[in-house]
Amino acid sequence: EQGRYADCLFNMVLVCCIPFISPGYLAMTFGALIISHVYLYVYDQCKILRYVRKFNFSGPEVHYLGMQLFAIPCAILAAALVFKANQMSADAEVLGSGYLQGYQVGAACFGAMLVHFIIHLTVLDYVVKPYEMSGKAGNHTYAEAARTQAATFFSTNPIHCLRSKYVLNHSPPQFPYAAGKEKLMKTNPQIGAFYVAEKSM
Questions:
Q1: For position 140, what pLDDT does the model report?
Q2: 3-state secondary structure the chain
Q3: Please, what is the Cα angle at 129 between 80 and 72, to 5 degrees?
Q4: What is the pTM of this model?
Q5: What is the pLDDT of residues 117-173, one digit of tens each?
Q6: Residue 53's closest CA among 182, 196, 154?
């Protein structure tokens, strides 16, 4: 779900900005982040395993986009590292006496963000992505594939299902696909309805 990626990404961006503002609360903030994400994990596990009828993962594109988007908080952390390193190079008795001064600090932080962002995306493109399993087209016929997949070109077309029943008078007609109602579908190879419903225990 793309909304969950947005939740986690927004939380991570907020936490990664803490070193610029009040690093004294960093441990407490990360603790709250961990607790909230554990809650999200438990909530999603409960929802997925108990209340969601069906999923359809057509490809890894959404997951890959999520990995790309997480380059943003990582880049902010790189900038925070430069910012804090500059502060640590300062004299403890003199405020703002770091090695970098004025606009140099902002330029260095922005440069660290940009370099990390480019490296992060490059590693994803040339190291992570090539090792992911890519889906290959099979050599099955339509009839073979439609025996195990209830959602087909015909069953997901409500107009075709109505024509099959009331105009063409097929017996049995093409039943419209509905998640959780697959057992009601009838097989009729003459009209392209090949799905064989599993017998309920």
A1: 74
A2: CHHHHHHHHHHHHHHHCHHHHCHHHHHHHHHHHHHHHHHHHHHHHHHHHHCCCCCCCCCCHHHHHHHHHCHHHHHHHHHHHHHHHHHHCCCCCCCCCCCCCCHHHHHHHHHHHHHHHHHHHHHHHHHHHHHCCCCCCCCCCHHHHHCCCCCCCCCCCHHHHHHHHHHCCCCCCCCCCCCCCHHHCCCEHHHCECCCCCCCC
A3: 20
A4: 0.61
A5: 999 999 998 888 877 655 566 677 877 877 888 888 888 888 888 988 898 888 888
A6: 182
Contact 95, 35 (CB under 8 A): no
Q: How far apart are CA 125 and CA 140, in angstroms?
A: 31
What is the rounded distance in angstroms from the CA atom of residue 50 to the CA atom of residue 114?
Answer: 43
Q: The tokens 């793309």 sit on which residue?
A: 2
**Residue the block writes with tokens 């909530």:** 43
